[in-house]
């Protein structure tokens, strides 16, 4: 019995072996096909969204890029708001800054939908919106601590990007109302500017409810940012609710055109003014120096570090090649006629570089203090580097023509072109001036408005040079004064385009620009976007 | 037993013949018989048989049988057949004459390497060009691509510039793709090579990385046995998803049976600049400034910024560059085992100071046969070590430039060395600069000498193949290959240099590792059925895996320049910008089969199927099938051409097939979150890491598909005295992988989609002639000609795409080219220059609206040539040999970006030099440089590429003769003559200036003219 069993089992084993031997190519093939047709992608240095957004830290990391995109606006939104106005011109100097004439085209209001800068601004803004939408979509599906506050934070940032679109392009698509993603088959259509205005308004109001009074970390947004944005939105309601064809190009576009807008502008400005968290900096320069993150006046700023890619490069745009290491770009200047509007006694006029420049920059300085000592500098052609207000030929300027703007002083700790000064989108001073302007619309000139303006002026005149109510008999007169005050206060803070349009002065002729057509009150929808999205409509007149 | 029967038959036959002699004498009669192949015994159909001196003739039937009437016993029958030695038989009294033809040696030698196997030349139905080393001019080559340049119709190879080891742009029959790679697949000894840049990118002087290096330079040209170029889909479809741009198969030399052979090849080369760019010299510059001061265009103080020197900056950075190469190879073997081993050392100096490369390559090829030759094993191993000394220059430099743009702009009145800088600061390191850091124009000599930029690359490539004859006709082959490269990049920009000064010294360290693994296994069956039907069937599987890893570290703010990148920790600042790592991986899995069939070596049919799966594409789109079918008809084997004896061979080929391209990045079908430096936010004065979508996923992504049709005629007249190919092709690429803007809001502005279409149509001709063929005097002539018409057919939603970035100061945001449906890739687009009026440039107002703007731009040129050609001749006269190689391109435009930027007098306003030609331009001094048709030049050229004269010593007498098998000395001149109307350094340029941009020349590294003295010895 036993033997037979053993024998059989040996037999079996032998046959199994044989079968195996015979079958091995097929077995091998099967294994091979199984493992070697696997085409699943393995990721290593990137992650897929399904494996992310699980911890608080990951959520903060998803929040950071929405803030990071604000740095991009300091080039694109800023350029649109500055270079298309009488505040900033970038003359062609030899071949430098010719750049396919784009700088002069912007300045002269030769707006072509194909110009890369418009697409740059559009893409920069919508990239911020897409990042915000992505995070909002994720937040809707998960549970994290402080979810409502984070959601409000993201919505506020998204509203800010939409606010900029509303300002520049007006009629734009809205994504994020009920859908967070774009269906490429059915891309979002152009919405009328008034609808975009309503969307920004309701988003800001909603976000405001869940935002904290103090930021979780300095640099992140608070309730007061929503108020500041709302104040500005309402003040511009007379423009922001209208298509370019409806705006008065030659007269003031009042917030009174929109029910309650002026009152709301005052209310939200007051929210900030009375919040108790902000006060006007005694030293005006504190808002712009490399350590300006300490300024008590800043409501909403992009924080910067003197590190590659994280800094501010405004000094590079304006200074002459010989004024800093690395060599700056000798570009952006202020027009003589605008420069001449500044009062000689106004401290704010010292941000301008005019006349002979000297070799040694002082540490932590602003404007004309910076290059006032050491050996006199020369430009590259051997001329004394003495900036002149007049630019004789904007198409063929010398290196020393044009007054330079050094409002954000160079950071002695700068790395390459990256300086640590923060860039303020909203300061308390603007809340004062918004309130003054809105009150003027509601009531006409009164002591309260004048008082608000004088508070802003008090720190920049010694001896003081307050405005007198008596000098402003009409709404128009005070509007004019407020527009000037905003110029003096916010030069290079990307307010000028908005202000000029609101005041009906954007299309008027000035030194290097003839009278421009009404269409320029909105920028053209970029050609690349029209190509990509057939549901978009070009703005009127282009 | 059998043998006995044979003998008996033979004896009987002889007896019958002896008996019949007297009977049949002097009468016309019929002779019959069979003609067969002497090596295989197979009957040969279609063999020509004539009675010598008469017009009587016939051919063998499908069974190789024939019947012919002969006038008498003195008649001589001539048996001839292409590829076989001619045989003459005196008829005598025979009634049956069976003949066995010996294949000619040449035809045996004409074996062509094709995908996954070899074929007889005459069996190939696709468009295939092959080059063996013997055909190649015995000149100086540092990289295998140089062996192909201008030798294959339809193949263009352009090195980016004259920098040693510069990257190549290889195009076969025009580019098919716009966004994806257009480089052909390169297969070395059966292993497909992942032709990715190995050298990590660096930070250029102005942030842009210098161009990638030539990845093919790892192969020692002396090791190459043959190169085959597969051109049409019929030939490349076996490589399926990677065949769309053609395939280049490189086989390396194998050992041969016999006693040990040692070969030494060495050369020394001296290179000089071919041409100089004419800028103002110091005197001329001073004179010009003086004139402008007198004219009131410059202030008198402009004299203050002039120097006293007279420096030719171009000459100061150029040199006579020496190159030396030494190659030693051993080979030998028994009937079972053969080997070949070689080692090569190359040291190539660049034309510009402080640049060049040094390379050491080793190779071992061995094969072994076992089981009576049924099992064949083969090992190929190569390893190369390259050390690049790179020059800090950028091809697309803007406002600040590298060494080469500063050659043009640096003021010639300034010295190279000085104690103080122009601004009075002490000169660092003794090099004169305009200012200590605060300047964008820099001393190019200082930059070349101070900036350290080195790359080291070690690449090892090996494969092991085993081939086993299973049963008669059936062979199994397994091939396993691995390719591994490690490359490092080290850069240091010292504080002493204005380039590094702004960072307090800057060190970058980068390491890249690239590996790929290939496994192939396939079965080949060869057989003949019913004597006429020849079949070869192939089926197999292939697996490829690719992996790349890289990391980089950047340090700044160094206490001392002495340690540089060797002690990056001594930098006070480690910068996130340059500190990173990444890894990616991809797979390609394939099944393939091919059937080659021919009937009686007259009608040929080939069918190919490849089923490819790539990890790069979206779920559901990972797999695709690539078919091809082709056929050939050997006209010369037909009766109607039989009598035409000067036609040795004439074959008509037709093929159609579909191939693909998958040369896009990894993971594009996946939504990816990445942590990039620009995604960081600053909160509370601290940087916070950001993770955000870094692509716009396209899960529908699939292959680019190229359908190609080819018709060709292979001809061979007068027994090989004149041979070649005529071909016409149409290639249509569909589902083009194109980066297109996506509707906003989107996390990134563009994504890759399968949209758009391109077409290439063309004609190719190649001709080889043996013009003189005498025992001691041979003249060979070769000609290739091709004309390709490229067209962008559709760009999806785009009316056009702008590309071709214009470089230089004041040029940002400007583009020189557009991709436009209906026009070829490389179409220049801009304003039409109408002259200079009152010092200002005038452009044509096309729409007559009184303004010059976007609407006035139009097509102003095209970069792709009307036709290209190559001509070569080899002359052998006794022991002397001479070869000449000329190539050229006709009807092409080049945008001279160098002239746009540097032929502008306004440079003097910035204290910068300019090209002398600007002196004659009527432009005002402050007129900016504006891109227009003014700067589009005719870039047609004819280049005498290579002239070699050699002398071979045979039968050396004496002691020397006992040891030296052969000896040859030669001199070679390269780039001896360039005939072109183009005014820049060289019209053959390829800078990467954006999507599919072609023909833009900007401050390139010049191509040298060189003279070589070389020797080869065999022991």
TrEMBL record, chain A:
Entry GO CC: cell outer membrane
Upper taxonomic lineage: Bacteria, Pseudomonadati, Rhodothermota, Rhodothermia, Rhodothermales
Family matches, as SUPFAM superfamilies: TPR-like (SSF48452)
Start and end residues of each RagB/SusD domain: 308-508
Cellular localization per UniProt: Cell outer membrane
InterPro entries per the UniProt record, alphabetical: SusD-like_N, SusD_RagB_dom, TPR-like_helical_dom_sf
Family stated for the protein in its record: Belongs to the SusD family.
Keyword list, A-Z: Cell outer membrane, Membrane, Signal
Keyword Signal set for record: yes
Boundaries of every SusD-like N-terminal domain copy: 54-235
Pfam families: SusD-like_3, SusD_RagB
Name of the molecule in the record: RagB/SusD family nutrient uptake outer membrane protein
UniProtKB/TrEMBL annotation, chain B:
Alphabetical keyword list: Cell outer membrane, Membrane, Receptor, Signal, TonB box, Transmembrane, Transmembrane beta strand, Transport
Location relative to the cell: Cell outer membrane
Mode of membrane association: Multi-pass membrane protein
InterPro entries: Beta-barrel_TonB, Beta-barrel_TonB_sf, CarboxyPept-like_regulatory, Plug_dom, Plug_dom_sf, TonB-dep_OMP_SusC/RagA, TonB-dep_OMP_SusC/RagA_CS, TonB-dep_rcpt-like
Signal sequence residues: 1-26
Family annotation (PROSITE patterns): TONB_DEPENDENT_REC_3
Residues annotated as transmembrane: none
GO molecular function terms listed in the Swiss-Prot or TrEMBL record: siderophore uptake transmembrane transporter activity
Annotated TonB-dependent receptor plug domain residues: 122-247
Keyword Transport assigned: yes
A GO BP entry: siderophore transmembrane transport
Domain TonB-dependent receptor-like beta-barrel: 414-976
GO cellular component term, pick one: cell outer membrane
Keyword Repeat: no
Protein origin, superkingdom: Bacteria
Family membership: Belongs to the TonB-dependent receptor family.
Protein's recorded name: TonB-dependent receptor
Species: Rhodothermus marinus
Lineage: Bacteria, Pseudomonadati, Rhodothermota, Rhodothermia, Rhodothermales
């Amino acid at each position: 019995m036993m033997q037979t069993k053993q024998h059989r089992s040996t037999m079996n084993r032998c046959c199994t072996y044989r079968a195996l031997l015979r079958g091995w190519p097929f077995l091998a093939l099967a294994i091979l096909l199984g493992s070697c047709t696997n085409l699943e992608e393995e990721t290593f240095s990137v992650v897929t969204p399904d494996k992310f957004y699980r911890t608080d830290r990951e959520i903060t990391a998803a929040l950071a890029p929405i803030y990071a995109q604000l740095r991009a606006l300091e080039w694109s939104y800023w350029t649109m708001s500055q270079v298309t106005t009488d505040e900033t011109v970038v003359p062609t100097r030899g071949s430098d800054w010719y750049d396919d004439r784009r700088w002069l085209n912007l300045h002269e209001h030769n707006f072509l939908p194909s110009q890369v800068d418009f697409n740059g601004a559009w893409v920069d803004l919508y990239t911020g919106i897409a990042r915000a939408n992505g995070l909002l979509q994720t937040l809707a599906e998960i549970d994290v601590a402080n979810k409502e506050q984070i959601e409000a934070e993201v919505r506020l940032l998204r509203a800010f990007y939409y606010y900029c679109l509303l300002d520049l392009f007006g009629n734009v698509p809205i994504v994020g109302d009920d859908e967070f993603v774009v269906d490429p088959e059915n891309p979002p259509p152009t919405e009328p500017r008034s609808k975009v205005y309503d969307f920004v308004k309701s988003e800001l109001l909603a976000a405001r409810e869940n935002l904290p009074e103090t930021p979780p970390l300095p640099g992140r947004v608070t309730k007061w940012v929503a108020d500041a944005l709302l104040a500005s939105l309402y003040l511009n309601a007379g423009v922001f609710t209208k298509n370019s064809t409806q705006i008065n190009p030659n007269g003031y576009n009042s917030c009174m055109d929109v029910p309650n807008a002026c009152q709301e502008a005052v209310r939200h400005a007051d929210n900030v003014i009375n919040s108790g968290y902000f006060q006007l900096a005694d030293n005006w320069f504190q808002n712009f120096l490399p350590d300006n993150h300490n300024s008590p006046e800043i409501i909403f700023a992009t924080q910067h570090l003197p590190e590659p890619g994280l800094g501010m490069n405004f000094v590079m745009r304006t200074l002459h090649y010989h004024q800093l290491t690395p060599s700056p770009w000798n570009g952006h200047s202020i027009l003589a006629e605008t420069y001449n509007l500044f009062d000689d006694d106004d401290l704010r006029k010292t941000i301008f570089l005019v006349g002979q420049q000297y070799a040694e920059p002082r540490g932590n300085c602003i404007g004309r203090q910076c290059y006032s000592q050491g050996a006199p500098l020369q430009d590259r052609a051997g001329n004394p580097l003495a900036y002149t207000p007049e630019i004789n030929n904007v198409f063929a300027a010398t290196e020393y023509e044009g007054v330079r703007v050094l409002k954000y002083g160079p950071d002695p700790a700068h790395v390459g072109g990256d300086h640590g000064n923060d860039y303020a989108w909203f300061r308390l001073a603007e809340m004062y001036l918004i309130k003054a302007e809105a009150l003027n619309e509601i009531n006409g000139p009164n002591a309260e408005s004048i008082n608000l303006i004088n508070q802003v002026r008090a720190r920049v005149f010694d001896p003081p040079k307050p405005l007198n109510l008596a000098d402003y008999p009409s709404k128009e007169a005070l509007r004019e004064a407020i527009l000037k005050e905003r110029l003096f206060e916010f030069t290079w803070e990307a307010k000028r385009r908005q202000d000029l349009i609101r005041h009906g002065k954007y299309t008027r002729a000035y030194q290097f620009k003839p009278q421009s057509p009404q269409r320029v009150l909105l920028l053209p929808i970029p050609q690349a976007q029209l190509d990509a999205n057939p549901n978009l409509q070009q703005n009127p007149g282009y | 037993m059998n043998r006995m029967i044979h003998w008996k038959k033979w004896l009987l036959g002889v007896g019958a013949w002896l008996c019949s002699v007297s009977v049949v004498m002097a009468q016309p009669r019929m002779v019959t018989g069979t003609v067969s192949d002497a090596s295989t015994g197979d009957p040969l159909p279609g063999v020509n048989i004539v009675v010598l001196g008469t017009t009587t003739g016939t051919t063998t039937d499908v069974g190789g049988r024939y019947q012919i009437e002969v006038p008498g016993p003195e008649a001589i029958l001539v048996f001839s057949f292409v590829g076989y030695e001619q045989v003459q038989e005196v008829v005598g009294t025979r009634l049956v004459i069976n003949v066995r033809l010996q294949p000619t040696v040449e035809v045996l030698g004409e074996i062509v390497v094709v995908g996954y196997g070899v074929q007889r030349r005459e069996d190939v139905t696709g468009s295939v060009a092959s080059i063996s080393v013997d055909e190649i001019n015995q000149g100086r080559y540092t990289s295998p691509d140089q062996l192909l340049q201008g030798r294959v119709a339809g193949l263009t190879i352009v090195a980016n510039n004259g920098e040693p080891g510069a990257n190549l742009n290889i195009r076969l029959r025009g580019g098919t793709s716009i966004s994806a790679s257009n480089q052909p697949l390169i297969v070395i000894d059966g292993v497909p090579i992942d032709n990715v840049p190995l050298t990590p990118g660096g930070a250029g002087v102005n942030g842009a990385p210098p161009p990638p290096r030539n990845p093919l330079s790892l192969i020692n040209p002396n090791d190459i046995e043959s190169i085959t170029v597969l051109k049409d889909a019929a030939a490349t479809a076996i490589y399926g998803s990677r065949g769309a741009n053609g395939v280049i198969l490189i086989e390396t030399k194998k050992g041969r049976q016999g006693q040990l052979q040692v070969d030494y090849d060495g050369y020394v080369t001296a290179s000089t600049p071919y041409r100089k760019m004419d800028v103002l010299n110091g005197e001329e510059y001073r004179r010009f400034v003086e004139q402008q001061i007198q004219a009131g265009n410059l202030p008198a103080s402009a004299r203050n910024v002039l120097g006293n020197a007279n420096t030719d900056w171009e000459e100061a950075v150029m040199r006579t560059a020496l190159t030396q190469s030494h190659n030693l190879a051993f080979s030998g073997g028994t009937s079972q085992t053969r080997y070949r081993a070689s080692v090569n050392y190359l040291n190539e100096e660049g034309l510009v100071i402080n640049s060049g490369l040094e390379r050491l390559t080793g190779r071992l090829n061995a094969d072994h046969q076992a089981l009576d030759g049924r099992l064949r094993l083969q090992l190929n191993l190569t390893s190369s070590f390259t050390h690049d000394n790179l020059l800090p220059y950028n091809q697309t430099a803007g406002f600040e430039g590298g060494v080469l743009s500063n050659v043009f702009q640096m003021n010639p009145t300034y010295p190279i060395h000085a104690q103080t800088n122009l601004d009075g600061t002490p000169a660092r390191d003794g090099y004169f600069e305009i200012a200590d850091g605060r300047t964008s124009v820099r001393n190019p000599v200082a930059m070349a000498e101070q900036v350290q930029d080195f790359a080291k690359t070690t690449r090892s490539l090996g494969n092991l193949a085993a081939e086993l004859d299973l049963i008669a006709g059936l062979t199994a082959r397994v091939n396993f290959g691995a390719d591994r490269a490690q490359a490092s990049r080290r850069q240091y920009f010292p504080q002493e240099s204005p380039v590094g000064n702004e960072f307090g010294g800057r060190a970058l360290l980068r390491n890249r590792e690239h590996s790929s693994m290939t496994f192939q296994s396939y079965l080949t069956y060869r057989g003949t059925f019913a004597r006429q039907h020849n079949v070869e069937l192939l089926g197999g599987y292939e697996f490829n895996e690719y992996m790349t890893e890289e990391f980089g570290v950047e340090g700044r703010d160094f206490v001392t320049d002495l340690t540089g990148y060797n002690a990056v920790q001594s930098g006070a600042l480690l910068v996130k910008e340059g500190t990173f790592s990444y890894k990616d991986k991809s797979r390609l899995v394939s099944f393939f089969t091919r059937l080659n069939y021919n009937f009686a070596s007259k009608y040929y049919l080939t069918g190919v199927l490849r089923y490819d799966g790539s990890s790069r594409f979206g779920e559901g789109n990972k797999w695709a099938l690539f078919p091809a079918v082709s056929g050939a008809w050997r006209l010369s084997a037909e009766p109607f051409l039989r009598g035409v004896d000067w036609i040795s061979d004439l074959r008509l080929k037709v093929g159609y097939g579909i191939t693909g391209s998958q040369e896009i990045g990894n993971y594009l079908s996946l939504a990816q979150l990445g942590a990039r430096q620009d995604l960081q936010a600053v909160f509370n004065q601290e940087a916070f890491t950001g993770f955000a979508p870094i692509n716009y996923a396209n899960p529908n992504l699939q292959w680019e598909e190229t359908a190609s049709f080819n018709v060709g005629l292979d001809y061979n007249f007068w027994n090989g005295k004149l041979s070649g190919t005529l071909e016409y092709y149409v290639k249509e690429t569909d589902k083009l992988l194109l980066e297109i803007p996506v509707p906003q809001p989107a996390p990134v502005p563009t994504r890759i989609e399968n949209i758009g279409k391109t077409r290439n149509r063309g004609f190719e001709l190649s001709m080889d002639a043996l013009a003189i063929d005498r025992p001691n005097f041979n003249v060979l002539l070769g000609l290739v000609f091709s004309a390709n018409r490229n067209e962008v057919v559709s760009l999806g939603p785009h009316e056009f795409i702008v590309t071709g970035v214009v470089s230089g100061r004041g040029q940002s945001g400007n583009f020189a080219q557009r991709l436009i449906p209906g026009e070829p890739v490389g179409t220049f687009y801009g304003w039409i220059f109408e002259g200079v009026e009152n010092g200002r440039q005038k452009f044509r107002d096309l729409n007559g609206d009184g303004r010059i703007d976007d609407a006035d731009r139009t097509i102003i040129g095209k970069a792709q040539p009307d036709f290209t050609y190559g001509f070569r001749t080899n002359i052998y006269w006794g022991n002397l040999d001479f070869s000449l190689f000329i190539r050229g391109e006709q009807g092409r435009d080049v945008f001279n970006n160098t002239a746009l930027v540097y032929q502008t007098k306004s440079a003097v306003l910035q204290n910068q030099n300019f090209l002398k030609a600007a002196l004659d331009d009527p432009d005002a001094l402050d007129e900016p440089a504006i891109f227009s048709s003014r700067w589009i030049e005719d870039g047609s050229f004819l280049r005498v590429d290579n002239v070699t004269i050699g002398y071979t010593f045979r039968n050396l007498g004496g002691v020397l003769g006992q040891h030296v098998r052969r000896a040859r000395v030669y001199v070679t001149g390269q780039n001896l003559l360039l005939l072109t109307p183009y005014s820049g350094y060289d019209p053959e340029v390829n800078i990467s200036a954006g999507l599919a941009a072609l023909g833009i020349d900007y401050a390139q590294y010049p191509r040298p003219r060189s003279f070589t003295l070389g020797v080869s010895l065999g022991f």
